[in-house]
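Lecture notes, continued. The same structure-token format from the folding unit now serves as the input rather than the output. Read the line below as a description of shape only.
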């Protein structure tokens, strides 16, 4: 069984891998200032929230 920290890390890794595959085909637009969180971090927080 996963601890809570291991579960969060596992979800983050899955989201990050999935986003990398999507961004190869559909590169994101880059405008404005640099964000303090990555897209994978934000999506992981939304999934776990």
């Amino acid at each position: 069984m996963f601890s809570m920290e291991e579960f969060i890390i596992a979800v983050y890794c899955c989201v990050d891998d999935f986003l990398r595959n999507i961004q190869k085909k559909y590169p994101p637009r880059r405008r404005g200032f640099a964000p303090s969180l990555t897209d994978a971090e934000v999506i992981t927080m939304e999934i776990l929230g």
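Point for the exam: The radius of gyration is 13 Å.
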